[in-house]
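FAQ: What does the model actually see?

It sees only this:
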Amino acid sequence: MSIKNIRLEVMQFLENKVEGFMEEYLIPVETIWQPSDFLPNSEDENFFEEVKELREIAKDLPYDFWVTLVGDTITEEALPTYESWLMDVDGVGQVENNPWSKWVRQWTGEENRHGDLLNKYLYLSGRVNMREVEITTQHLIADGFDIGTGRDPYKNFVYTSFQELATYISHNRVSQIAKQYGDKKLSKICKMIAGDEMRHHHAYSEFVSQIFKVDPSEMLLAFNYMMKQKIVMPAQFLRESGEKISSAFLNFSDSAQRIGVYTAADYVDIMQKLIEKWEIDKLSGLSDEAEKARDYLMKLPARMAKVSERLVIPAESTIFKWVEPAMIR
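And it is asked to produce this:
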């Protein structure tokens, strides 16, 4: 039997658990928070006063902070690409509407709130050029992405396990910085989004744990493959108006590293957490190839930590069209 067919069998075997996953890791639409819960109410007669206060508090946040917040928002807003990618994964079932496709749709519904909330906050803040932000978002969706997983569910679940934890770290750190600058509203917004991301991380990492129970060697080889090729961020093709895909994502990443929102050390830490979560050191009955992969994985975080320590981040901020310096003063 081919590797693809074995993966399909495993996905079908796990289908009867997906309803339980949804109950445990997703929140019903009627009870989960919505973006309007955290923004000035446009129906309220005090709306303009609340917006004025929001804009006044936002003035104190620094340039790299705004670049990072905009980049995070654009990443969240490119959700159509992520949903269409996951719906095409082997075993998900775009046409059959099986439990996996229900998971992807409901997960998408929760994630969609994040970009919606951040976009509205940015608009009300008056600190950024919203048209430039919107152009970049449209480019990112139109350009698509390639995260190196193909249609392989094992690789995709490794990616989402990693990525959801990375977005938790980013939103949580932004929340902490906003709080330091006295922006309690933005701090709460980002903290709530971070909470969703952590919950989703637990879900995807549990999917991988379940696969390890029935197909440990192939699951380990998929994990090894993703760590070897490195996890690329979903906004890797970021670009501004009039530009081609080039260094915009790297410049955005530099801003995030300069203010400590998401760093190379965080990348290594996530890798270590996944190794521990999936108890790679305790797996048994592995093939020879998988045993070699385990040896490689167990040593990889320490090796990458040494590399990350040598990274030099530019001291000067790159000026983006999204955030004009004059708007931050």
